Amino acid sequence: MNRPVGLVGGRESEAAATNPGGAAPTTRRGTELLMLAFAAVIMTGALVLVDANQEQELTLAIVWYGLAYLGIFAAAHLAVRRWAPYADPLILPCVALLNGIGLVMIYRIDLALAERATQVGRDFTGVAPRQVMWTVLALALFLAVLMVIKDHRTLTRYSYTAGLIGLVLLALPAVLPSAISEVNGAKVWIKFGLFSIQPGEFAKILLLIFFASFLVAKRDLFTVAGKRVLGVELPRARDLGPIIIAAGVCLGIFVLQKDLGPALLFFGVVLMLLYVATERFIWVAVGLSMFGAGCLLAYTLFTHVEQRVANWIDPLETYDEPGGGYQVAQALFGLGTGGVMGTGLGAGRPETVPEANTDFILAGIGEELGFIGLAAVLMVYLILGMRGMRGALAVRDTFGKLLGGGLAFALVMQVFVVAGGVTKLIPMTGITSPFLSYGGSSLLANYILVALLLRISDAARRPQPQARQRPQQQQPPIAEAHTVMVQAPSAGGGVGESDLPPAPPPPPPNGSGPATYPGPGSDGAPAPGPATPSNRGGHSGAANGTSNGPGADSAGGTDHGNGTEGESKA
Amino acid sequence: MNTPLRRVGLTMLAMVVLLLANATYIQVVKAEDYRDDSRNQRQLLYEYSRERGQIVSQFGGTILAQSSKTNDRLQFLREYRNGPMYAPITGYYSWRYGSAGIERAKNDILTGEDARLFVRKLSDIITGRDPRGGHVQVTIDPTVQQAAYEAMTSRGFTGSVVALKPDTGEILGMVSTPSYDPNKLASHDGNKQEQAWASWNCDTSAPNCNHNNPMRNRAIQETYPPGSTFKLVVTAAALEDGATADTPVESASNVVLPGTNNITLENFAGATCPGSTLKDALAYSCNTAFAKLADELGAQKLRSTAKQFGIGMDDLSIPLDVEESHLGPLDSSAVLYQSGIGQRDVRLTPLQDAMLAATIANDGIAMKPQLVKELLAPDLSTLEEFDPEELTGERALSSENADVLRDMMIASEANTSGEGKRSDLTIASKTGTAEHGNDPKNTPPHAWYTAFAPAEDPQVAVAVIVESGGDRGLAATGGTVAAAIGRLTIDAALGEG
């Protein structure tokens, strides 16, 4: 509203330019396959190094492992080729590389732990084979998601269901008795005899789906300005409800699960979604102050939080205390010993750090591959996040933008929380490194996340085959339907502005937006605009229209669902 | 909504940049601190993977510690022959508890990390031989060490014996009892290490904890009130101040501490001193004489002589770090009175006490005590040989005065009881019976004996301390408890044990 229109408009068109809307886009599957092969070479090389340094017998088996790994990801590649041909070509290779490095590290730590076990005469079974099994399962799930969800907008139909299941999954370990939910002091598990899962990992995605579609439907609510204080428009008090609920839930989970990691992640992602949906930074400010207050409260109320903070400030000081800084200190020792170049894969002592193959796997990588290796891994995460974000920027529907952006942000945020904890940037919280850490739940959930990112990036780049798309293509810079809406009456004066909700003069006749622009008969029909001729109604209509744009043929039902939701709530 | 998305993208970028900056700080700037932290066992584990050098004696090449090949991942097991006997010298080498003693002080040589071994290491890598560590040859004489250790342990004494070669400072023997077996800490079995460590380091107030700090190297890490052995320093200071053997001194059975309300300082058993010269005072260890003498000399003179003996040196390393021996604050006459007889706040390590005798034996020049004779490359070629070094570069007392003091000590030895006297050997000695604790009169005293022999051509200087009266309780004296051990040690050093 207050922003210079031209600037935003310019950026929007830039975004559209990167989006290959007009010219027939290449699928770039070849690039993906090449990069996957590259990842396989790195993974095989890493395996050779580990075996050489650990004085294991070097056999041809390693080549087979490498080929098997390549085979598994080639299958994933073929699935992408078949079901998401226009998906971003770098996402899958990044994931494959991280997963491969993770497998090698887990195998490497297995060797060390087995050695230790032999020394004290205990039995030890490595977990690497299990992680391989989880990888295969995760890839199967990945394929299933790509196959079943042909259009990400279908998900909006199940948003409330997703939200409910997500909340239940999230809260379940907290309310279950400790005996079946507590591991190492954190109540984030559900143990089923042979294996255990961390439902929070799945809840992460389900809640993201819920929040994204909820915000698409309701974002006007959050953009109504309240009082102006010191030049800052504060949100109306009653609109604070959802964020207070989110904060409360996070705090509750945190207290009950004795684990800050998941709560921090959720809250961060909710804030991010709220900010993107409303474009109002005040939400972030409000959320951060709530977070700060919550942290302060937790610090004064709970000794284990106090301990964590003490461990963070100086882990060497609290080294010998029970629950003290031993673990973080050992991670720092490992990182320091690794230095810039690292000790070499298989030549360090990553197993010295407790939880070396889960939460602290980055410490092992930093030790054996050095700062260079750690930085490389972080960069791969960043590339992964940025490619996801790119898909979100380019995709044409609001829900896709929110979901894609949220998933990409959640991934990087999770990396920040765990890597920051390991390297003593922030207090340590129990959370896994996506794709690297040992753990089925984390792997399965993150593969779902990636499948969704691929789906969104596919939607973003997929050319519109229908003839009725042509008119849209003749206006190349326009990526969003609402842009069209405003453009029509005001002759290009406010490109992109219509997305900012309480545009004072009720824009064009609400019905005209959806009706003139995408024009797919079935989609235009439920146009909720006319039904609710208020600003809000107009906007949910606009949002709705937005999602109609791309892939209209496959997503008719989606829009119905979305539309009706918007209507009923308006 | 692309603008906020872009901003979120920038935030993601910023988060990763922050992580990278922090990782740089941890892995580049602070890397060395973390790498060298004593609790970081990675370096130690790395060291285990190659053959660690031996610790051998300069006499007959007796092996104190060596590494032998094993079948497990740690590859080499550290073995200590006569572990408890040599533990104060070798220290231990444990992957769980770090290291101590020569194992710690000369770690670079033993692992082969030392810069002087670099070329050899390189050629080892090229020729495909496993890199090995260098060896450390220590000055210890196994005969002396064994005699002293067995003399202490057979009597069940807690304490320490130190034997020095007066003209070079070489440490011939360094015993601390009770001792511990470093083999247990070198075990590759973590549980064994843990049990051993716990049994030697538990909180002594806890039930089931029954030990007497066996891992403390009493010879250099513990300071004790030296009692009458400190009279050697006071006498040296007096002689340097112009006194002679015949200078008359106080001989009363007790003196009142100046500035106090009738608090007296008595001679041993409340006796009057049998003589009234300085020589008699030392020979009979008359407290009143030395109390007054110390006060007359004053803090400054006392300190400057003590300094030349090595007292007050806070950076002595042999190359194991030696606790500082000190006089305490000599801030009043009363304090000087008590300090003059080696009580109050005067504290010496057993090594320092041996250095008193060694300095007098070496014509008044203190030599820097040394435990390492030679550093050897893996192929036994010499890397570095240690030369005798004067401790401070200044005499503690003149050669003539040293002779005078020696004669006084011979007279003192004549008045000293205890077993092991020989008619064919002249020993110059001084005993000490040091009170300590909160209730000194009812706490068994520490028994001291410091001596050198043969008096006419000193080959060895020893100091013995037996904590808390040994087997004699309150009746213990330096002569009755410690002297016999000192004489046995001297005999062993002179090759007649």
UniProtKB/TrEMBL annotation, chain A:
Q: What is its main location?
A: membrane
Coiled-coil residue windows: none
What domain of life? Answer: Bacteria
**UniProt source species:** Haloechinothrix salitolerans
| Protein location | Membrane
Q: Which InterPro entries match?
A: FtsW/RodA
Q: What are the Pro residues biased-composition ranges?
A: 501-511
What is one Pfam family matched by this protein?
Answer: FTSW_RODA_SPOVE
Which spans does this entry mark as compositional bias, Low complexity? 15-26
Q: Know the name of this protein?
A: FtsW/RodA/SpoVE family cell cycle protein
List the residue ranges of the region (Disordered).
1-26, 489-570
Transmembrane region positions?
33-52, 58-78, 90-109, 132-149, 161-180, 192-216, 237-254, 260-277, 282-302, 360-382, 402-423, 435-454
Keyword annotations of the record: Cell shape, Membrane, Transmembrane, Transmembrane helix
How would you describe this protein's topology in the membrane?
Multi-pass membrane protein
Automatic annotation (TrEMBL), chain B:
- Where does the chain cross the membrane? none
Q: Which residues form the Penicillin-binding protein transpeptidase domain?
A: 159-487
The record ties this protein, via Pfam families, to: PBP_dimer_2, Transpeptidase
Taxonomically, the superkingdom here is Bacteria
InterPro entries associated with the record:
Beta-lactam/transpept, Beta-lactam/transpept-like, PBPA_dimer, PCN-bd_Tpept
Record-annotated Penicillin binding protein A dimerisation domain positions = 52-136
Q: What is this protein called?
A: Peptidoglycan D,D-transpeptidase FtsI family protein
